[in-house]
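Deliverable D5.2: sample structural annotation.
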Amino acid sequence: MSQASEPAATVERLAATLRQRGARIATAESCTGGLIAAACTSLAGSSDWFERGFVTYSNEAKTEMLGVPAALIAAYGAVSAEVACAMAEGALGHSRASFAVSVTGIAGPGGGSIAKPVGTVWIGVAACGEKAVASLLQATGDRAAIRHASVARALALLLARCEAG
């Protein structure tokens, strides 16, 4: 299977799983700028299982739209496991979804540091009634490649969580 078709195939499996469970998802995106939501809603009938998406590119948007505490961002940085988890939990709390995925990272070409180089992406996955978990992706390539890799990994992690129940 080509890399370009991977997200589409994952979305199809995600849709089938969510329909079977009668569940819906929400997305909270920073560096991907809505690409996860776009991948999901590119599938006809996605309104059955896609509840809503939040594009929270700025720190203020993360706080205002998702309820991520400004102190958490100040303590750990926007690109952190802690903020990714808070974003996913905030997406659940501000929607009627059963599952949520969040992405926050540095897509480049600028903005990186020694501690958090370009390609550092944290992905959070949350389910109702459970604490969110975060996964680190160290992507390579240009901005488009990093964003594509982030979408693919986020969808794969969300699918695995949804399939687990």
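Annotation notes: Strands lie at 25-29, 50-55, 99-105, 120-127, 133-138. The mean pLDDT is 95.
The annotation will be released with the project's public dataset once the embargo ends.
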